[in-house]
Amino acid sequence: MRIRFQVLPPLLLPRPQTMPLYEIFRQTIAALWAAKLRSSLTMFGIVWGISSVILLVGLGIGFGIDQRNQLRSIGTDIAICFNGKTAMPYQGYAAGRQIVLTVDDAVAIKEGAPLVKRVSPELTRTVTEVSRWNAASRAVRGVWPEYQLFRSLHVEQGRLMSAEDERNGARVVILGADANRQLFPGEPAIGDSVAIAGYPYIVIGVLAAKEQNGSYGSGPDNSQLFVPFSAMERDFPPDDKGELRGDVNNIVIQPVSSALHVAALREVRQVLGARHHFDPTDLDAVWVWDTLQDAEFLDNIFHAMTVFFAAVALLTLALGGIGVMNIMLVAVSERTREIGVRKALGATAADIRRQFLAESAMITLVSGSIGLLAGVGIILALRLLPMGPILPHPVLSATAIVSSLITLAAITLSAGTYPALRAASLTPIECLRTD
Predict the structure, then answer these.
(1) Is 247 helix (H, G, I), strand (E, B) or coil?
(2) Cβ of 222: how many Cβ atoms within 10 Å?
(3) Residues paired with residue 255 on neighbouring β-strands, in sequence order
(4) Which of 45, 68, 190, 252 is deepest in the core (most CB within 10 A)?
(5) What is the pLDDT of residue 165?
């Protein structure tokens, strides 16, 4: 008997289908909800990190802007020249000579230093002031009209001094905000008279109050009175021993631009050196407070502080990313049997990988969005509140937002990829025999 074998066609098994996105999303929500406490704590790390980046960088930038504005309240791109003492011999003159600035020096600077935009001598006297309502003993400054432009003096009432007031030696005065409150408490000051050391001066202006955390000479502008230089030189002769008529307390200059302030100061030293016979490179002969140099120094300090704040905040965000990776590795360990069952039922390695990537992405993206909204919201809220003279208003920085989002994207990829690859590499047998 002959036996015949019939060759049957091979059994065609269905090809595994890719898990739909909505199913991945549903399972992701279910997995995160099953470990909601752990997921919430991990998300809090990302929220804190993102909001810290935005807030700390905003505070750093705000500190820098606030300090520049405070320095600008002293004057707009100015340098103040004070009397000094020579530190080196020059053309037969011995070192150690006292250099006393005069009003003629200010005239020489105005005529012989083309890189100086404006200049004003400054005389300061502390004398008695008496109005119809009260008396005071405050500093009075005699200045040229140009002084008002670069020293950020703005009137709230009345007007500033004019060139005609200076030319005529007019007895007119501008009151600082605090001086006005003391001499004219609740009373109109414009047009009224103040006896300054016995001389009647007419009030032509009251300055707007200034937030000023620094000054030179006799104190902040709010507390002082300002009169034409020619009137002060006439009415208040020198009272210090050895001081001569024409001597000034200091000379204030404003360069034509902030970029040329070093060259402008070099011109000023050359003019003064020629008049007083000292080496222009002798920095001790005339001491100069350069507010532009101070501004650059402060910019460097607060830039470094902002970078430090950003680095600390980004590190905090990175630690939050490590927390995400840790929770995903724990999830892989806890759900090993689940992974085995799903693979035995036809789930592919790509399905497993996408599942864990989706979970890590859900954690980072949702928490990152909350942190972004929280950081922006806190800054906007703080900008509406009065922060006082110490704390500045934070600034909403686009750089901080972009940096935090880039870091968040890197965390999303790095924190989810390794756990997902580890889960996808497990075999069904290895998973199902795990206790």
Answers:
(1) strand
(2) 19
(3) 116
(4) 252
(5) 93
